[in-house]
């Protein structure tokens, strides 16, 4: 019998995890990359005069925009590490926004946050039943979850927000009444001191002050919770027996079963956690970003979270970097418009030139030549214009996402059994 896309891989023990460890960068290398990126951004800021690039307001806005994307990506990581593709993250986020807005305005925003997580878990369980128990194609199930979540929340919003006390409090068929704020944290003294240093516009020093200032000024408590979830997920999945068993279900479920792992249970747990994290991302949008449920407020962030997860090579650290990059570019176009986005063209020229040099060094002449040609075109665009057209400014985050994914695609390795149908006893 020939193999199909949904067959489970043969029971040979996977060896790719060892190879991925050899390819992973050391902590020192990561610090050098971060330091080089900071120096480059600081140089671009000084040359172009675009001081908003590293201002505390820019970093604070980028952090707020990155959190829901990061939570969606972390949700996808949990699911796919157990072997279940989850493109239903967008629908689970939608359920989270509705649950948070529905309960948040009637009681406590903290209860609304929990309700958002709970609604996301329900969406995750629907996906788990379809894919794990009934063997439905993961992509088909994910699309169905997205459509069901959108239709259900639209119906429920008309049912609960368009009349009675909800309508009197400001609700309508497309949005809930406003909920109370969850609160934020500012480090007194440190925030003002860093802002003073930033205002001097010194090379690198003011850039560091602006970045640190954005991380200690008006930071939502949910943002701190998201950081804790990233660290906790890394520790749980890569440093505990539970995480090893869960990841084995995504690499080779037949081998895991032969060692006594209850593959169904671990897959269900992973997809339920995935739904809860996506629901938390939706609740963040409803209770932190806008304080209301609003139809369509996820704006495709579930799909962008999946892109960030792929960019991060199915690991929390890389995922956080991907979410931060999208949040930064999104905040830049929302806060500063065409003039500051124009400064990014110079940064893009440098990155493309470096990429071209690397490709030529590796004897990839066609790729290096194309990168060098595109760098020349972008340089001409930068030199002969003063700002980026408004239509292109709005697309900046998506262009950045596509560019980064295209540059990082060669080093990616998804879990071996990701998206494949599994049946108990299949290896016998």
Strand order, largest beta sheet: 1-2
Given as residue ranges, the uncertain stretches (5+ residues, pLDDT < 50) are: 1-23
What is the 3D shape? Answer: globular
Task: Give the helix level as a range of percent.
Answer: over 70%
Rg from Cα: 23 Å
> How many DSSP helices?
19
Report the end-to-end length measured between terminal Cα atoms.
16 Å
* Counted beta strands: 2
Could you give a short account of the major beta sheet? Answer: 2 strands, antiparallel
Q: Mean pLDDT, nearest integer?
A: 86
Strand percentage, roughly?
under 5%
The H-and-E topology, N to C, reads as HHHHHHHEHHEHHHHHHHHHH
Query: What structural class do the secondary elements suggest?
Result: mainly alpha
Structure notes:
Helices cover 71% and strands 1% of the residues. The protein is globular, with a radius of gyration of 23 Å.
